[in-house]
Amino acid sequence: MKRPGNVIINSPFVVPKRHWQQQNDGTLALIEGRRPASYEIYDVRNNTRRVEVLEQVNEIRNRVDAWRADDYPGVTTITRQLLEHWRDQTAGVRTNSFYYCQLEAVETQIWWVEATASYRQGVFLQGDGGPFERVCNKMATGSGKTAVMAKLITWQVLNAVTYPSKVLFNTRRRY
User: Fold this and answer.
1) Would you list the domain boundaries of the chain?
2) Each residue's pLDDT tens digit, 139-154
3) For the chain, what is the HEC assignment?
């Protein structure tokens, strides 16, 4: 496979604008737009590979993009203030900006809980039948999973303290 001169083609701080795509002959082509969520399956017995596109992930990305573009309908005042603070690129607000993937992961979790029903219509996530809903984000090594968890904890705690009667943030169950 021919290697490109520079494999890094996007800034980690903004939505990816281009991506590399492996062609049938093994070469890489630079493609405009964000790479669709997918994974590759290699069959070493037959020396073949195939790409499995994650349609539901791509649909959720599109829904979160629309929700963000519409200025986060359905969120609490606390959530709106947090999202504005985390997205603020003004000099002096923070030493290091957050990666786009970190903010998107946080937004996706918040979207699942707070977005108005119209943004989530038709999206079903299979559960395990337990008392807690489990929703996850997949992130690469070194992409800031700990920072994402810190933001999610901050979001949940501040909303729970501010809105003690909202079941979304305060579940008082006895098991």
Assistant:
1) 18-53, 55-162
2) 888 889 999 999 999 9
3) CCCCCCCCCCCCCCCCCEEEEECCCCCEEEEECCCCCEEEEEECCCCEEEEEECHHHHHHHHHHHHHHHCCCCCCCHHHHHHHHHHHCCCCCCCCCCCCHHHHHHHHHHHHHHHCCHHHHCCCCCCCCCCCCCCCCCCCCCCCCHHHHHHHHHHHHHHHHHHCCCCCCCCCCCCC
